[in-house]
Amino acid sequence: MIALSNSYKILIIFSLLIFLSQEIQMTSKSLKASGENNAWPTVKRAFDLYPETHEMHTITDCMHVATEPGDYVFKKSLSSAQRFSFDKLNENEFNEEGLELKELEDAINVCGLYIIGEPNTLVEITMKHYDVNCNSGGLMAFVDGWELNGEYFPAINDHHRTLEDRLVEFCNNYKRWPHVMNKKFFRSSQNAALLQYRLPTKGSFIANVRFHKITQPCNILVHDISALYNLANYGFKRNCSISALFPAVVQLTNIKVGGKSMRKGKVSYECMQNDDYLEIGGSPGLDSTHMEKSSDICGYAETPGPEQAIFCGVTTARLVSSGRYQNHVSIMIRKADAEDLDLATLVCAF
């Protein structure tokens, strides 16, 4: 065995260090060049599996309106009276006063989390947790829009998706093994969405609500905000609407609807023979396709028009577009009161 001197050992170690240092520098340059030549940015995920933490809200009303982002929590357990009524249901026994039946109706009532955002937003719901037993009659449903008394916003015929595609039902099937608790994600097409739930016995859920900006809103639901709203078709063949959930005073601040023959610096109220026009009216429910009409408007104007008061449960401005023109309307909406009766152009039967 050959023995190496200490000086020779130091020389070998020093050489190895220089070699390793050069290798590290070359690797670093190669990685940097690779990053500079990479034309593909990181793909943005459509949904965040773990949304940012927001304020927690407890759902206490059967019809709960949500306007803020955050976690919405609901938990239910049967009262003794409701449990007794449920036992009676299995035995088909109810007393003459129907007290047990009343308790049962309360237990199986369908409730909803009605979500509404700013006009230029859509709603995203992440089901972080849901304990809704299918076998006991429990059921949840996401609605792209709002549903109330069998009527929908946006109206069935005015939405680009079929009603079947707008409704998604789900629950937990605990008889199936293994139990799968997948997170569920939903997005609406406009600033309104609904989460319905029916829990006959017990159950709970946590729904995270977020709002995302959109550039071309079509249907807008107005809850209690008086403001200036823009309605446009952006060149598409579609019907768009603004519905206010209250009697309202409506004023057009500018309008550009229809072809050149209709844009001679004036507004027409005889537009039913045209393919592009604006309807203003009201209805007792959400369905705007069957509303009572106050006026049909088309033409061109850059100055504000007269105010008109719609005394109905829901006030709607509906823009019907053929897709041949770039239609645009700016509408001022405010709540109507008794002092606006002189401006009334439509009064619905309440």
UniProtKB/TrEMBL annotation:
Molecular functions per Gene Ontology: corticotropin-releasing hormone binding
The UniProt record lists the keyword Disulfide bond: yes
First-listed, main subcellular location of the protein, grouped into a coarse class: secreted
Domain Corticotropin-releasing factor binding protein C-terminal, first and last residues per copy: 237-341
UniProt keyword annotation of Nuclease present: no
Signal peptide region: 1-26
Domain Corticotropin-releasing factor binding protein N-terminal residues, every copy: 110-206
GO CC field: extracellular space
Record's subcellular location: Secreted
Entry keyword set: Disulfide bond, Glycoprotein, Secreted, Signal
Gene: LOC119634322
Biological-process GO terms, alphabetical: hormone-mediated signaling pathway; negative regulation of corticotropin secretion
Protein name, per record: Corticotropin-releasing factor-binding protein isoform X2
Pfam families named among the record's database cross-references: CRF-BP_C (PF23541), CRF-BP_N (PF05428)
InterPro entries membership: CRF-bd, CRF-BP_C, CRF-BP_N
